[in-house]
From TrEMBL:
Stored Pfam families: GerE, Response_reg
Transmembrane regions: none
Record-annotated Response regulatory domain positions: 3-121
CDD domains in alphabetical order: LuxR_C_like, REC_NarL-like
SUPFAM superfamilies found in the cross-reference section: C-terminal effector domain of the bipartite response regulators (SSF46894), CheY-like (SSF52172)
Residues carrying 4-aspartylphosphate: 54
UniProt name for this protein: LuxR family two component transcriptional regulator
Cited SMART domains: HTH_LUXR, REC
One GO molecular-function entry: DNA binding
Keyword presence, DNA-binding: yes
Alphabetically ordered keywords of this record: DNA-binding, Phosphoprotein, Transcription, Transcription regulation
Length: 220
């Protein structure tokens, strides 16, 4: 069972998400928050698998709350999906930098939302539409990539897989592209995260662009 917390300052929005998600046999909504501070409190008390987080909320915004949750080692199992109506470079990049595992616009189709929750709950893939990945690339392109000595710690195969992750490929797609098994692909990604001291694939994508390893323009 996937335990969820919904954080949005609009009760009607929370009710809509609850109606969609609680109808799934493998999901349950454990709690709701109307502001960022309450979202953090519920995360610590309920330890949900996935927390759906609005960005613009009173008291503390979603980025602040996400940053606090993801920085708390005791909440390592809590994955955050940012849900917003605002499609802007700063929000996308800020959400991923804060530690969010996904970024979705609120006009997403119900089936896509349900799929997103399942994917993020298993920690298996970066959840973002192609437009979001493109915005991350555009934002990173404005930075001057610093040296990345951490790359020396990766094997040739791990570097190859890093490039595929940065391009937005899932573990299934990586396995198919490299003619390896899914468990092998997943193990390689986990080792890369450990070596680079990163939380998840979302942060790995940002790191790849900031370090200059990934080149903006790779993504469709």
């Amino acid at each position: 069972m996937i335990n969820l917390v919904l954080a949005d300052d609009q009760a009607l929005v929370r009710a809509g998400f609850r109606a969609i998600l609680s109808g799934e046999p493998d999901m349950t909504v454990a709690g709701e928050a109307a502001d960022g501070e309450e979202a953090v409190r519920l995360a610590r008390r309920l330890r949900p698998d996935v927390l759906l987080m609005d960005i613009r909320m009173p008291v503390a915004d979603g980025l602040t709350a996400t940053r606090e949750i993801c920085a708390d080692e005791t909440l390592d199992g809590v994955r955050v999906i940012i849900l917003t109506t605002f499609e802007s470079d700063e929000y996308v990049y800020g959400a991923i930098r804060a530690g969010a595992s996904g970024f979705l616009l609120k006009d997403i189709e119900p089936a896509e939302l349900i799929h997103a929750v399942r994917v993020v709950a298993r920690g298996d893939a970066l959840l973002a539409p192609s437009v979001t990945r493109r915005l991350i690339a555009e934002m990173a392109a404005r930075l001057k990539p610093p040296p990345a000595p951490e790359l020396a710690a990766l094997t040739a195969r791990e570097t190859e897989i890093l490039d595929l992750v940065a391009a937005g490929h899932s573990n299934e797609e990586i396995a198919a592209a490299l003619a390896i098994s899914y468990p092998t692909a997943k193990t390689h990604v986990s080792r890369i995260l450990t070596k680079l001291c990163l939380r998840d694939r979302a942060q790995l994508v940002v790191w790849a662009y900031e370090s200059g390893r990934a080149i903006p323009g790779w993504l469709p």
